# Entry
Amino acid sequence: MQFKNISIYSLTLILTLSSCSGKKEEEKTVYENTKFTKNNENSVHLTEKQIQSVGITTTSIQNRNMEKLIRLNGKAEIAPSHISLVSSIMGGHIKSINIINGSHFNKGQVLAVVEDPQFIQLQQDYLVTKAQLEAARLNFNRQKDLNTSKASSDKTMQTAQADYATLDATLKGLEEKLRIIGINARGLHTGNIRSKINIYAPFTGFVSKILVNNGQYINPADTLFELINPAGLLLELKVFENDVNNVKAGQEIVVYNNQNPDVKYNARIVSVVPSIENGGSATAVAKLSSVNSEFVKGMYVNAEVNINSRYTQGLPNEAVISFENKNYVFEDLGKSNYKMIPVVTGISDDQFTEIVKADALMDKKIVQKGAYSLLMMLKNKAE
# Structure
């Protein structure tokens, strides 16, 4: 009798605890998970309330024509041939600077004005030499006529000819010097001699650096500005070692920046550096299909390359989850039970991921929406 009383008391206690436990189960949040035995450590059971909250949907293995999508990242750079250092041909004082760092300019625009008395002297020398040349030309023609009638010696004629040739060479040299400092010698006369010269933009682009100030004296060897020609923008992209053989010069790609990832632009691979760096990647150089102000030197960029189109089997990207460098899917076992299954993935695109040896998942219901939530529940259970 004593044994029976103990048994009845024990049974009553168990039922009471079970009832209390049931009430607590209803009070749990939808993301909380019941405890499982070790034999069921890759499975999750959801209550009806949890299923509704997570919004579980299922899918199945699908046949699709897919392309391998390689994602690259890197930086925008400018080819050295498109970075120009601007200086003045002749020294002088900076009279004015008409640009600021980062500003856009057009070809032929005046970037700065330089002033110096030597500019006046150069124009004066040109005009004096021009007048002397005219006098030398007249003298040479006169001596040539006199020599024909033997009224003048050959030596006198030859001296006149040499004087004319010397002055002609001197004038052409002065004309070229004036040209390279921006003064049109053919339109020069005593009424328009000036003490200032303009520094013109050699192309259309952007100002990278300004290295002088107003009033500063500059020498011909001094750099005034660093200018960038955006036509020389290159994208230096990192290619992981296992993808190097799939990325080749001539391939069309799409690129975008982190500030506006939804807007993509066309570009083309122009070269791949045949060298693997310490980080296990090579460098592919790409060029935009057209000049684009959205990309500037030093900006981080992303790119996508589609290769190896083939007909294969896969699942929506949402159904495939990664955990500790491995990929998994969840199978719907029915009765609110879900089991995590390891899978090997292949190529992927914006919507689907290839599943290698997908026959093992044929005719199975695979969780699509809610797969990540199931992983979190399973992880919390393990902890």
In short: The radius of gyration is 41 Å. Confidence is low (pLDDT under 50) at residues 1-39. Residues 60 and 363 are 7 Å apart (CA to CA). The chain has five helices and 21 strands.
